[in-house]
Amino acid sequence: YNLTVADFNTYFAGEQQAFVHNMKCDCGVGNLKGIPLTEAKQLMSKWDKATYHTLSDSIRDHAKRHGFGNDIVKYLRKAANFNKKGAKQKALEDGAIRWNRKSGEFLIERNGKIVTYGINK
To answer: pLDDT tens digits for 69-87?
Structure first.
């Protein structure tokens, strides 16, 4: 079977949040094409779904809002590789922490999980 969930062929499923991958032959933009499953699992495990219904909804929306379009892999990698060293840390009212770099790059985390990442231009 070829199942796609919200434009992803790789996703978490069930109460135990099992990491599931269903290979789709015509993988297009907007999925996790070309990324090893172990890396996808590792990158996605760093994220918090926050107020979104699903983790994939959160990641897709933030990637689009912050200029990454459907390049989910690039967005996940950039967020995961954010360098906190030298970044200014600011506690937010909701308990999250925002990290800002002079370049405009920022990362917001809550309870050690990424909520969003972006670059202010």
So the answer is: 989 999 999 999 999 999 9
Residue 14 · residue 8 · CB < 8 Å: no
Residue 58 gets the label, from left (phi > 0), alpha (psi -120 to 50) or beta, of alpha
Beta-carbon count within 10 A of 13 CB = 11
The answer to whether the CB of 80 falls within 8 A of the CB of 72 is: no
From 66, 55, 1, select the one nearest 32 (Cα to Cα): 55
Between CA 47 and CA 51 the distance in angstroms is 12
DSSP 8-state symbol, 109: E
> Can you give the pTM of this predicted structure?
0.73
How is the chain split into domains, by residue range? Answer: 10-119
